[in-house]
Design goal:
Layout: E1 2-8, H1 24-27, H2 31-37, E2 41-45, H3 56-63, H4 68-71, H5 76-83, E3 92-101, E4 112-114, H6 122-136, E5 141-147, E6 150-155, H7 183-199, H8 203-210, E7 218-226, H9 233-237, E8 241-244, H10 248-256, E9 260-262, H11 275-287, E10 292-297, H12 299-305, H13 309-333, E11 337-342, E12 359-365, H14 378-383, E13 387-388, H15 393-398
Helix pairs in contact: 5-10, 11-13, 12-13
Length: about 400
């Protein structure tokens, strides 16, 4: 038996005025997913435990079958694992975004223009992070470069600040009121201010401005945490798992849980990613011995954060092609299989950040047709009356143990 999760990060949404009062899932042309929905179990699932923030870290752990309330220790430690950072028990890590802030003289008066610095390339970002590391590393702080705008700061013998704001939560807003004020947080703020002075006139940024791109003119710290202790996936579920994703967060989860982490050429974490390459990598992994593959696609989430309705719809349509490639490939191989299709959380276009609303899911099983829904949408999934109150129950459902 083979199991596949096809996850469109942030795919769920609210009815949107730019889509004539419909959601991206309702507008997208996704004939293959809708065909499966007609003969699949469908419902809603709450992937965010009560009292926890609706991050992709918490939500994806839930969908993978882990209880975040028991095993979650912060987002950045998961990303640190992907980068290859060996954390000590006393280390505290923070996600370090390269962001674009407005150019007011006083840092507190600036506005968050772009949480991703125009989706800066990894090559450009590495130059900037290496430069900042030369200038800022010390007093127990160490910067590490990651992918695109996503990087990591490690503090030896650190303490949790507790008041760091995700930059994607304040896109287009003044940073005042969202800056850290705790004693530990002020240390982060001092580094952020120093980074702005160092980056504003850096040659990489001057060229980006000349080319009409957003400069990466400041670090922004958030998502802090400590060394995680994630149960081994195979020991927990009795199957060999593989992770396919373009982002460090999911790669880190895969690595820490003992899953095979598969890199796909051309995978970017946005709507220009190699969608079909991920589907083909999934089929190869299953053929080579994996029992379970988790295909994570970040594109709908990124589009949601940018309020980009056109490309969010486009991304969902490309995911339809991924589903078709995977399911048809499994049928051709003569495998018995089950496929779960869902988001981790909604990232509504209207709010440009994550919400804790339940997500719609469908589970298709080969050789077993059930009465499903007319098409895969939030409203249709809700109409079934099926509701899972714990995200980790999706894994039990997929394995037929719920």
């Amino acid at each position: 038996m083979k199991y596949v999760v096809i996850l469109g990060d942030g795919m769920a949404d609210y009815p949107d005025k730019n889509l004539n009062g419909k959601t991206p899932l309702e507008v997208a042309n996704k004939p293959y997913i809708d065909g499966l929905a007609k003969v699949s179990e469908a419902g809603l699932c709450s992937t965010i435990p009560q009292g926890m923030k609706p991050g992709s870290d918490v939500a994806n752990l839930s969908v993978l079958g882990y209880d975040p309330a028991k095993c979650y220790s912060g987002r950045s430690p998961l990303e640190a694992a992907s980068i290859g950072i060996e954390l000590k028990d006393t280390d505290v890590t923070a996600r370090a975004n390269l962001v674009t802030l407005s150019d007011e003289e006083v840092y507190e008066d600036k506005t968050m223009i772009d949480y991703s610095a125009g989706e800066i390339t990894t090559a450009e970002a590495k130059v900037l992070i290496d430069y900042l590391a030369e200038k800022l590393n010390g007093d127990g702080y160490s910067l590490y470069s990651g992918v695109s705008y996503r990087h990591c700061l490690v503090k030896e013998n650190g303490r949790i600040a507790g008041d760091l704001t995700p930059p994607h939560d304040i896109t287009g807003k003044a940073v005042k009121g969202h800056l850290p004020e705790s004693a530990e947080g002020k240390k982060y703020l001092a580094l952020m201010k120093k980074s702005y002075e160092l980056l504003k006139d850096h040659p990489v940024n001057l060229k980006r401005i000349k080319d009409g791109k957003n400069p990466a003119n400041s670090l922004w710290f958030w998502g802090e945490g400590t060394k995680p202790d994630l149960p081994d996936f195979k020991e927990k579920f009795g199957i060999q798992g593989a992770m396919i994703s373009a982002v460090d967060l999911l790669k880190g989860i895969g690595k820490l849980s003992g899953m095979q982490v598969i890199n796909v050429k051309g995978a970017t974490g946005n709507y220009d990613t190699n969608f079909i390459g991920k589907a083909e990598a999934c089929l190869k992994a299953l053929k080579d011995g994996a029992d379970y593959v988790y295909i994570h696609m970040e594109a709908p989430d990124e589009c949601g954060h940018h309020g980009d309705a056109e490309h969010k719809v486009y991304s969902i349509e490309q995911i339809d092609g991924v589903v078709k490639t995977v399911v048809e490939g499994l049928k051709e191989a003569g495998e018995d299989f089950a496929v779960l299709i869902c988001p981790d959380h909604p990232t509504p276009l209207s709010v440009k950040t994550h919400t804790s609303d339940p997500v719609p899911y469908i589970i298709y099983r080969s050789g077993k047709k059930v009465k499903g829904i007319e098409s895969y949408t939030e409203k249709n999934a809700a109409s079934t009356g099926i509701f899972l109150s714990h995200g980790y129950d999706l894994m039990s459902k997929l394995l037929g143990k719920y």
